[in-house]
């Protein structure tokens, strides 16, 4: 896709867009910030089919938002509360990165030392891998976990898989590039234990849980009986070695080998993660210098920046740079240093991927990131959206023709227009949502989903006749669409 605006014009337009949002955003008038965010989050839950969720926001070192939504246990209708625990999976690595920096501050480890200095029995090819490369996934080590199944590469005791992975060749030369794997954090966990003389879980509990006063958080997996732990769900499941998709929720059973607890082992609440983040910012674990080092992205051998820092992922988007952790395709947290803003989203749906909309949540506190600015949309949809903010959504067909005239390769995927329409719907811009979703019908008239979505928009707008009409069109194309059937029953009062 071509760039349609010069950099200078883009900056001017961005400033005007923020002003437009602040002055004319219909949702902003007469509603509290919490109510607006509640509506948006419930909309995201509906859109992605998330059974239960917790959200916390911290700003300038204080908790400013904490809410719980939906069900922790679907068959028994157990509601999510602020004390419900969720596995944070790989976001545990942020705790591990912090633990390593605690040892660095104590003078017990150096980031650029070779791992062999702190660990025994490493294969010769592994011995020059540094602590920093383990933390940033630039080590090139083979993975002890099968990425397709989520299970260890060898059955039996953890030690069997560890012996097996040490026989495998390097994936690439250390520092050459980035490739995510769990072996790095298995070794880091062993490093923490050998240097501290404590088990990894005890070191984290004493060094981070206790100082931050995390009253709910604990280690464990589906084998453990953990009070207040939410069930986990997915619309994808594995049967007889094959992954399948379902329109109905399936339970998820997760097993984290003991040696992989440094990679994915913590269960927590959004409130506890918020307290942990505030404690980290307050210097209760490590000082600011160490924190800045931890949040600095690694460099590959050729000087290019890696996407990860020490246990954390890093995104650089100008003044809105963020550091983040995510795990299990269902939990995520981000911190925006320039704005002193942290957002935590925990869900019980594997596949919810809250990292996809966490920046939009941040936008309720950072205006330029608000979803109504187009933030979070696919690039072509975002370009269209921003143009329509100036010209009006009734001109969507003409604006699209203009973009196509400038660039014959300009395309709007069906999913992107659908996401765009729902963003408008869930930020209270119903009439604009109807225009966008009508346009999706124009582009993809053979898709049942576009009629389903437009039906929902019309129902929200109070146009019962048009809603029924579009749900019926959906069912002609897809007779088994249960959502359309349910909505028609509701609309017809049956």
Automatic annotation (TrEMBL):
It comes from the Bacteria. Keywords: Repeat, TPR repeat. It comes from Pedobacter nutrimenti. This is CubicO group peptidase (Beta-lactamase class C family). InterPro entries: AmpC-like, Beta-lactam-related, Beta-lactam/transpept-like, TPR-like_helical_dom_sf, TPR_2, TPR_rpt. Residues 41-355 form the Beta-lactamase-related domain. Pfam families: Beta-lactamase, TPR_2. SUPFAM superfamilies: beta-lactamase/transpeptidase-like, TPR-like. The keyword Repeat applies. Gene3D superfamilies: DD-peptidase/beta-lactamase superfamily (3.40.710.10), Tetratricopeptide repeat domain (1.25.40.10). TPR repeats lie at residues 448-481.
